[in-house]
Amino acid sequence: MRREIFVTGGTGYLGSRLIPELIARGHSVRALVRPRSAAKLPLGCAAVVGDALDAASFADRVAPADTLVHLVGVSHPAPWKAAEFKRVDLASARATASAAEQSRDAGLSHVVYLSVAHPAPVMRAYWTVRDECERRLAATGLGCTFVRPWYVLGPGHRWPYLLAPFYALAERLPATAETARRLGLVTLRQTLDALIWAIEHPTPTLRAIGVEEIKSGRAAQGREGVEVLA
Questions:
Q1: Which residues pair with 32 in a beta bridge?
Q2: Residue 226: pLDDT above 80?
Q3: What's the whole-model pTM score?
């Protein structure tokens, strides 16, 4: 089914790769961008100029979207970026939630959010902010899908391949197996497939697609194997 999609973060690492695939699959895509970034959008994607941190700058232009995909976040997350997580990730999620609520009567019914696996023993400031973002989006009452990778391997993001042997060992040890699976490494292709599946299979409630589902491809195959948030 052809979807009308509104994307925030469309010129970022995942957005710039996701949008062309959505267009190729026949969907109509518009993306929120800053004035100087409009030219970076893929061919076939319409630009909506605004500020992802300010709902008033774009809320009235989400329509006629039925699906809103929120990809805004601090690039290259690190423990010392806690203040940025609140300034960018949380503020943009709040703005997106407000815009989504205002767009419900115009036909918006589903929000897809690129979150992060949690809880985690490291990067606490990062995942707690993303958890708060999920809660704010869930409070809209719209159907929400939270895609939760931990680290996405791809161009420019390959160094964690060095950790693969340690992950393999941790997954075999009872004391660390659950954490290693929940915080496993996923590929760019797997993450894109999970996002596309979520967009094309909207939920009227709440749904989370975790690392194990992303890695196995179960989400992309239409199997929800995911936890439903309380």
A1: 8, 48
A2: no
A3: 0.89
